[in-house]
Amino acid sequence: MIGTRAEAGAPARVRLERRLHVETRRSALVRIAGLLVALVVTGILLQASGRSAPTLAGEVFRATFGGRFGLEETAVLATPILIDAIAVAIGLRMHLWNIGVEGQFYMGAWAAAGVGLFVDAPRPVLLILMALAGAAGGASWILIPAIARAYWNVNEIITTLLLNFVAVSWVEWFSIGLWRDKEAAVVQATPPVGARLPLLPGSIILHVGFLLPLVLAVVFFFVFRNSRWGFEVDMVGGNPRAAEFAGIAVRRRILSVMLLSGAIAGVSGMVHLSGATGRLQGTISNAYGLSGFIVAALAGASFFGLLAGGLFIALLLHSGIVLQSAGLSVYIVLAIYGVVLIGISVGEMASRYRLVLGGKRDLASGPKEAPP
Amino acid sequence: MPAPAGAPGQLVVEARDITKSFDEVLALDHVDLELRIGEVHALLGENGAGKTTLSNVLAGIYRADSGTVLVDGVEHHFRSPAQAIEAGIGMVHQHFRLIHPMTVAENIHLGWRDTPQFVTKRELIERTERVMGELGMHVDPSAEIWQLSVGEQQRVEILRTLARGARILILDEPTAVLTEQEARDLFSVIRGLVEGGRTVVFISHKLNEVLEVSDRITVLRDGVRVISRLTAGATARELAKLMTGEERELLEKSRTKVGDRPVLELVNVTARGSRGFIAIHEASLTVHAGEIVGIAGVSGNGQTELAEVATGLRRVDSGRVSIEGFDNTNSAPRRFAEAGVGHIPEDRLGVGLVRSAPVRDNAVLRNYWKPEHSGRLALRRGRISEFARRLVEAARVQTRSIYSPAGYLSGGNQQRLIAGREALVAERVFIANQPTRGLDVHATQDVRQSLIDRRSAGCGVLLISEDLDEVLEMSDRIVVLYEGRIVGEFPRTDVDRERIGLLMGGHIGPADAEEASV
User: Fold this and answer.
1) Is residue B385 part of a domain?
2) I need a surface site. Which of A24, A242, B32, B190 has the fewest CB within 10 A?
3) What is the CATH number of the domain that holds B93?
């Protein structure tokens, strides 16, 4: 209950008060409310620009949920986003912001393509080799930022971010240059890689890579709950000086977390290459790394929360493709993404506060004793 | 500075029926307070009693949920500190709000309405000197804040508040950060202010200070006013009882015979501080099993570095550190823990705890890797929880559950958790650096008891404290540290308080000669 008595002379005012605890359910509900507000705003804007929002919404819904193909397409989009989000979330446990997942994704895909194009082996073996190469490619791309962070405390946000641009150019150079497919009509990609991931039983396009993020989320949930390494990482993340006092090798933990994050991002590049595109191309990532980053940040590094968030972003991306084919400009589509993400982020912030009227509260309804 | 109007003894501030809660915590429960012109009014209470909350309401930092504040009989509802100071109420916080790379004059003029829009450094300094002259308090106006001692910084804060026209000055735990001499100086400043017709609210949990400096005392307990009375005739024992709601038990001090077995030995240790300067010079120190060695000294004279060297958190440049005869020089912190060295660090939040982690994880921070808590890969969560529950119970940590983040505990309970945890690590040596700083009576007692218990169990205890009373009360032997050197040593039976005070201040020659030359 909010107090309603107004103090004589003091006008009733509304103010914000920070909550000590935010329940998961409340936080989820407020985010959904933020999403709904954003969708209404989007609808009004579309309507104002002469489009029929209900018709477009119906089209998006039909194209996504109307058949297997739409759903599978969404899941294929979700796969790299989810794996990248897990890579970011692992860093976030230590308050390390790996903004370079995009670049590590590219380098993972590149290294996997190198193996796929030039190594001759039976498919299962080749896939394993490609995955290892992907992990190594991603990890190598974060090696310098990781060392700089661990030994000289160089901010990893900047270093990892800048390396993204290098990775994109690197892959472009190979895909339209050195490794270009000279036989087929495709001019901006390599020839098909030697091995593709199998499809899930009964699927049209959905490959087994979709299972990887689900497995990883469960594995890391338990790693951080029960393992010694996870405990140490959480302690370093919470307070590096206390971790040192506890005898934890802080630098080694920073290195291991960042390299693992990079390796997982690299594997996501390999999965997307061998599962979805089949060829290495300059545009192999549709900003999956950045989407994964947003997902992990919004999910607050919760491994199950990010699964829901990643699927949602994939849905959004898929809707964008549908909207574009319905004739909406790509800029409008990007604006819609923006409005929706802002709606959810505002909801996330809002769930940490509550409104109090007039600076007063009905004390009779609250417990009298201070909690211990 | 206009001289405050009104006759001494006249009511100047009346707080009526103030209630304030934070989330579900009721910090003030219908509290009244009356302040009179020309008095030093002490607000006495344990941590969490509501002293600071009440002051923040008076100073416009918090808004009360209900109740009114009258200044000179006029009702006010302050929405900001600026409005409170407009009405004459100003507050000096426990943690100073000064800008270190700026000068005293600049800090005093920052955000002050009377500061001219365009002004030269020269003018700022002149204006500052004028203010200081009127108030009779002096600090070099062109010094930058970081160059000043803590006592001088506090004076700048007071000057800044008074310059803005505060007639009622609230000092939140002003002596917590001061040395004895600085506290003396502060008391005479306070006396000067009230003689000039101002009112000072003095927040503290130190009984002796309150008895010494105040004219009137209000005791708060759990957000309720217990009593307001004149200081004259009050006794420390009676106030302690009002504060805690019970008679303070005396510490259990059963003594074992001090062994002659050295458990911690520092031999000619030289080490650098974090800024790279030598912080400890060739210091040698031995702690035997079953004794408490107290280190007296003004903070910043190498105490923290000494504690860190003896626990593996800092490397030595030269010299030797051994634990029970085994060389442990420059070993990793975990080797010291394995050797049985427990450590209550000075910066308990910065080093001692992971605030975001649950109490359970903090309970095993220093021994989570031991076989009873963890295998090679997986933690034994069940056993860890059981261990944490036992620790919380034994160390009397008040917490909702072992799953609450350690950051949610009050300061006293955080320290109980650290002390309890480290006592279990300390099989041979227990090093406590400022273990009771800022704690209330109960927590102080619990922490001191844990040191005494370890000593009785045959452990060597090294107690580092700025509180000379604490060092004298607890220690079997007292060592004085000054500028990183050990400048004096006193057995418990032969303590010369004055001599220790002189040594702490750097008067290293023989006591008599020193007096003659000063």
Assistant:
1) no
2) A24
3) 3.40.50.300
Residues 6+ apart with CB under 8 A from B382: none
Q: pLDDT tens across B318-349, in order? A: 999 999 989 999 999 999 999 999 999 998 88
Question: Does residue B304 belong to any structural domain of this protein?
Answer: yes
Least confident of A95-99, A294-298, B241-245: B241-245
CA distance B498 to chain A (A): 37
Can you tell me the distance from the alpha carbon of B448 to that of B470, in angstroms, rounded to the nearest whole number? 9
Contact A245 B313 (CB under 8 A): yes
Same domain, B277 and B214: no
Tell me which H or E stretch contains B460: strand B460-465
Domain assignment present for residue B252? The answer is no
Per residue in A163-189, pLDDT tens? Answer: 999 999 999 999 988 898 888 766 688
Q: What share of chain A is helix, strand, coil (3-state, %, to 5)?
A: 70, 5, 25
Residue A8 reports pLDDT greater than 50: no
Query: Within 10 A of A128 (CB to CB), how many other CB atoms are there?
Result: 13
B478 or B255: which leads in pLDDT: B478
Q: Do B361 and A235 touch (CB under 8 A)?
A: yes
What residues of B are in contact with residue A247 (Cβ under 8 Å)?
332-334, 337, 366, 369
Task: Kindly state the average pLDDT of the residues A322-330.
Answer: 86
**Residue B9 CB: number of other CB atoms within 10 A?**
11
Residue B83 host element (H or E): helix B81-87
Same domain, B23 and B57: yes
B307 shares a domain with B235: no
**Whether B351 contacts chain A with CB within 8 A:** yes
For B343, which residue in chain A has the nearest alpha carbon?
A245
Residues B200 and B161 in one domain: yes
* A-chain residues near B413 (CB < 8 A): 372
Domain interval for residue B474: 262-354+417-517
Domain boundary at B180, B214, B244, which?
B244
The answer to the question of residue B123 being in a domain is: yes
List chain B residues with CB under 8 Å of A366: 21, 24, 26
State the average pLDDT over residues A329-351: 84
Residues of B in contact with A228 (CB under 8 A): 368-369, 374-379
The residue count of chain A comes to 372
Q: Domain limits of chain A?
A: 78-313
B345 interface with A at CB cutoff 8 Å: yes
B105 near B127, Cβ under 8 Å? yes
Co-location of B324 and B218 in the same domain: no
Across A107-111, B185-189, B239-243, B453-457, least confident range = B239-243
Give me the residues of B, 244-303, that contact A with CB < 8 A. none
Q: Are residues B51 and B155 in the same domain?
A: yes
pLDDT surpasses 80 at B282: yes
Q: Does A243 touch chain B (CB under 8 A)?
A: yes
Q: How many domains does chain B have?
A: 2
Same domain, B108 and B163: yes
Contact of A364 with chain B, judged by CB distance below 8 Å, is answered with no
Q: Which of residues 2-41 of B touch A (CB under 8 A)?
A: 19, 21, 23-27, 29
Per-residue pLDDT at A371: 38
The reported pLDDT for the residue numbered A67 is 85
Residue among A123, A144, A135 at smallest CA distance from A255: A144
* B245-254 residue pLDDT tens: 764 444 545 5
Nearest residue on chain B to A366, judged by CA atoms?
A: B24
Name every chain A residue with its beta carbon within 8 A of the beta carbon of B19: 363
